[in-house]
Amino acid sequence: MQIRPRLLSTATALLLAAGAAHAQALPTFRLEMNNGIFNPTEIVVPANTRFKLELHNTGTQAEEFESLELKKEKVLAPGASSFQVFAPLKPGRYRFFGEFHPDTAQGHIVAR
Ligand SMILES: [Cu+2]
Question: How far apart are CA 79 and CA 57, in angstroms?
Fold first, then answer.
């Protein structure tokens, strides 16, 4: 019975390879929020492509990532990390802000 284990391991390897390819296919970007300051303030993403935005609150104050245009919001406690997956965007410039620091926490996602 040597054939069966070999077939199984080949199938497993193919599944793992497919999973890795899928994960790599999702472009990923990072936004840091620190006591009312966003970094970067402009995130350029590919248009018409699903993408992932990692959110990292490195500050000592809570923040809420919010975009009215993109209908996203996420509260992050100090030190917390999270992410949002965005549906494909038409080319354009989309505003986001920190709802807990709306005067200083400002940024845009630019799809091109
Ligand atoms: Cu909100």
Answer: 5
What separation in Å is there between the alpha carbon of 106 and the centre of ligand 1? 14
Distance 22 CA to ligand 1 centre (A): 31
- Domain ranges in the chain are 26-111
From ligand 1's centre to the CA of 66, what distance in Å?
6
Rounded to the nearest whole angstrom, what is the distance from the C-alpha of residue 63 to the centroid of ligand 1? 10
pLDDT tens per residue across span 21-66: 555 679 999 999 999 999 999 999 999 999 999 999 999 999 999 9
Q: Enter the CATH code of domain 26-111.
A: 2.60.40.420
User: Would you give the DSSP letter of residue 68?
Assistant: T
The torsion angles phi and psi of 48, rounded to 5 degrees, stand at 60, 30
